[in-house]
């Protein structure tokens, strides 16, 4: 193999993913800009593989030739130049398609079309007003689902808790005060306990909280409690998934981290640009609501989606979702929140949270959720987005560092909530 080191973005890099079943391991090799098609691999091998738990963004190490059954994507042998490395710590080296074919000429290797060029995977619709039509069209591909004219007639959506209905009504009344909010939350003992646990968590350092009113006045504030209660009650309509991607963080911990980081970012923004802090908190708390909805409404498809995400950690989640479902978590989650009557800015922010250049109504809140996503993954942030929300990269990272330093407190917040409603996790 040619020994020159390469760092040319035009030369196609390979991706290595290891799969396994009860009889052994399979190594798959395909272009970095492709998505591994697990269904095709299963069809070719007549075996049901699961991705091996290796979530390094650079992919799995390349195993020694003929030490393991290997399938190499045929797209690679058509390339004049391929960038390859023998393990995750070595330098990339350039080889030709013919050299790659000769290198994997042993009896345990075969060349098959096992991946999909991501450029061939359709994008989600640009406008949320078209989401329902796209989701309905996608559901037409699910043979087990009977399609009706309207999405809410097709989906078996869990009923919205009575507490959510009450809080949504309060949201539209500008004259509501602490007494009314406390009364509504207290009608749901479980929700009241969750709010009090949240306010008494070590993160806020307020000590014991004796009532919902105490949580509002002493710690969280009216706006925060209103939106926190709404987020908790809506989420309680669903159970967090048991069969999700194994590298996906605990649902509530992920939600709490985003909510707290959203709060920190808003406080660091210039006052003239700040959205309502309670709405920012709620957008963070519900940012992955579509993940929750898919797991509850489409359990078999969610299981398939989870395996595809595990095998394709190098790709943006929406690419995998579009291939497997033909709609994204953000599309379904935001549609459902609108259907239930939650504030429009929350649904819009979640819908466009992975679109950094979205520039229409409620763009500031959407960009804040995007920044929170990127910070949580330690991924690059579009400089123009930071400029639009009035934050420097240093300030944004400082907010994330502050929240990360409170990791133990966040875990305790989640534990308190789960202790009041243990069936959630």
The CATH class designation of the largest domain is Mainly Alpha
The main pleated sheet reads as: 7 strands, mixed
CATH H-level name of the largest domain... which superfamily? Hypothetical protein af1432
Give the DSSP E fraction (strand runs of 2 or more residues).
5-15%
What is the approximate shape?
elongated
Rg estimate, integer Å = 24 Å
With helices defined by DSSP (H or I, 4 residues minimum), what is the helix count?
A: 21
How would you characterize this protein structure?
The protein has 425 residues and is of the alpha/beta class. The chain folds into 2 domains: 109 residues, YbaK/aminoacyl-tRNA synthetase-associated domain (YbaK protein), CATH 3.90.960; 210 residues, Hypothetical protein af1432 (Orthogonal Bundle), CATH 1.10.3210.10. Helix content is 49%, strand content 10%. It is built from 21 helices and 9 strands. Strands 1, 2, 4, 5, 6, 7 and 8 form a 7-stranded mixed sheet that branches. Helix 6 packs antiparallel against helix 7, helix 8 crosses helix 10 and helix 13 packs across helix 16. The chain is elongated. It starts with 11 loop residues before the first strand and ends in a 5-residue tail after the last helix. The N terminus and C terminus are likely disordered.
Q: Which terms would index this structure?
A:
2 domains; YbaK protein; UCP036888_HDGYP-like; seven-stranded mixed beta sheet; disordered N terminus; 425 residues; HDOD; disordered C terminus; HDOD domain-containing protein
Briefly characterize the structure.
The chain has helices spanning 38-45, 74-77, 97-103, 131-139, 151-154, 162-171, 178-186, 189-199, 212-220, 222-235, 251-268, 277-285, 289-297, 299-311, 317-324, 329-339, 344-351, 363-377, 383-388, 393-405, 407-420, and strands at residues 12-21, 24-31, 34-36, 50-51, 69-73, 82-84, 93-95, 109-112, 115-117. It is an alpha/beta fold and 425 residues long.
